[in-house]
Amino acid sequence: MAQKRSSKVDPSHPFAKLAEVKVQTAPTSTTSRTGTKPGPAAAARKAPPPRPAPPSTLYDEDDRAAFALFIEGVMPLAERPMPLDVLGGGSAKHRARLEEESSVVSAAEEAVRAQLRSLVDPGNRFEVREDGRSVEGRRVELPIAKLGELRRGTYSVSQSVDLHGKSLDEAREDLLRFLARETSMGERAVLVVHGKGNHSPKGQSVLRLEVAAWLSQGAASEYVSAFCTALPDEGGDGALRVLLRQKR
User: What is the pLDDT along the chain (248 residues), one digit of tens a residue?
Assistant: First the structure.
């Protein structure tokens, strides 16, 4: 049977003094083992630093009220996805639109050059006749037989532009773009619809005389060799047949 070891420490042992040392453990909470809270000094050391005060605002109550009144009824815009071709994605629709815009710009530039040439070109002169219902004109250097062929329908018409119901400014711009495009495409004769003027004063089309003037002078005349009232099945006195000048 094993003998029990004596709990007494020999005073002469080198580590005898260590038996007299008491080990203290740190408290796990702010309350000590005796149930008392730490003193004010200890609490001050453990308190978190105070938060900085918020910056003072530059606006008072009157400013905020005025701003609220100013934006009253304002609604945010709805977010809509932008189509790919608007972003330059290179779609077929995007390329077609760029080509169309380029052709319009080219036609406008050519119209300006044509107008400048007409100011210095003494050969840009027309002979025009009008009897109240029909109208015709030809460039003076064009043989009169060509006007007869245009009048009889020798030149077939496949392309047309409808100016009926448009303002004078819109009609003039549309006519100029149309003539420039069809001339560049190699068309020989086209149809310009201006309306019969049934609802105009005295039942006459004001636009008809304006179109005749545009075809015989100014920028549009640069693309025209002759013009005359259309055939009955093409609209009669509500349209004009136009013989285009061949590209130089």
Answer: 555 555 565 666 655 565 565 555 555 554 545 555 555 555 556 667 777 665 555 556 777 777 777 667 666 666 555 554 444 455 677 677 767 766 665 665 665 555 544 444 455 589 998 887 789 999 999 999 999 999 999 999 989 999 988 889 999 999 999 999 999 999 999 999 998 866 554 444 678 889 999 999 889 999 999 999 999 999 999 999 999 998 76
Do 238 and 195 touch, CB atoms closer than 8 A?
yes
User: Rounded to 5 degrees, what angle do the CA atoms 110, 96, 190 make?
Assistant: 50
Q: Strand 189-193 vs strand 160-162: parallel, antiparallel, or unpaired?
A: parallel
* Cα–Cα dist 30/144, whole Å: 118
Contacts of 123 (CB under 8 A, 6+ apart): 139, 140, 141
Instruction: Give the Cβ contact number of residue 5 at 10 Å.
Output: 6
Domains plus CATH for the chain?
120-244 (3.30.1370.110)
CB neighbour burial string for 90-127, b if at least 16 within 10 angstroms, e if fewer: eeeebeeeeeeeeeeeebeebbeebeeebeeeeebebe
Helix (H) or strand (E) holding 144: helix 144-152
Structure tokens at 230: 């259309």
Locate 26 and state its tokens: 């740190």
The dihedral of CA 175, 178, 182, 188: what is its sign?
A: negative
**For the whole model, what pTM was predicted?**
0.50
